[in-house]
Specification:
Layout: H1 2-16, H2 45-49, H3 54-64, H4 66-77, H5 80-96, H6 104-114, H7 119-123, H8 129-132, H9 137-144
Length: about 170
C-alpha cells in the first residue's frame, strides 16, 4: 500500500511540474462558456457578404439547387401564415443589414449561435436553414442570386414543376 501511495504521489508531483492545458479545456474563445459564431457558423461568410435579397437567394436556390429549395419550402409551408410572415420579415431584416464579416450581420450570427430562446427559433427552428446550409447550397445561391429580380415575392411559392416527388 505504501508503494502505491508513493507512486501516486510521485505521479502527481510529476504532473504538476508540467503545466499544460488539459485536453478538456475549452479553446480561448469559448472560455466564457458560450458558443460563439465564426465566419462560417452559423451563418456562412457568403451570406454575411452577399448584397442579394432573400427573394433573389430563394430564386437562386429554386433553380440552382431545386431539391434543397423544395425541402425548405415544404417545411416553410407547414407552419401557417403567421410564421411564414415572421420568417419573411426576419430574413428581409437580416438581408437589409450592411453586408460584412464584422458589424450587424456578424452580430446576428453570434446571436443565432448562442441564443436558443428567440420566439421564432422556438416555434420554427429551421426558419433560416436554406440560408445557413454549408453543403454547397449557400455557395450556389450566393454566386447566382444577382441574376434574379430583387423583389420577386413568388420566390416564396412552391414550384409547380418541382423535381422532388413526395409520397
Amino acid at each position: 500500500m505504501a508503494k502505491i501511495s508513493a507512486g501516486l504521489l510521485a505521479f502527481g508531483a510529476t504532473a504538476l511540474s508540467f503545466p499544460a492545458a488539459a485536453v478538456a479545456d475549452p479553446p480561448p474563445d469559448y472560455i466564457d462558456g458560450y458558443v460563439h459564431s465564426t465566419d462560417e457558423y452559423p451563418i456562412p461568410r457568403k451570406m454575411l457578404l452577399t448584397t442579394c435579397t432573400a427573394e433573389q437567394l430563394l430564386d437562386a436556390a429554386k433553380f440552382e439547387t431545386p431539391m434543397e429549395f423544395d425541402r425548405y419550402i415544404m417545411e416553410y409551408k407547414k407552419h401557417g401564415e403567421d410564421l411564414d410572415q415572421r420568417t419573411q420579415e426576419r430574413l428581409h431584416w437580416f438581408f437589409s443589414l450592411p453586408p460584412g464579416v464584422t458589424g450587424p450581420r456578424r452580430d446576428f450570427s453570434e446571436h443565432m449561435a448562442a441564443t436558443f430562446g428567440d420566439p421564432l427559433d422556438v416555434l420554427y427552428t429551421d426558419y433560416a436553414k436554406l440560408f445557413v446550409n454549408n453543403k454547397g447550397v449557400v455557395a450556389k445561391m450566393a454566386e447566382n442570386c444577382s441574376k434574379y429580380p430583387r423583389d420577386d415575392q413568388s420566390a416564396w411559392d412552391w414550384r409547380d414543376d418541382s423535381p422532388v416527388a413526395y409520397n
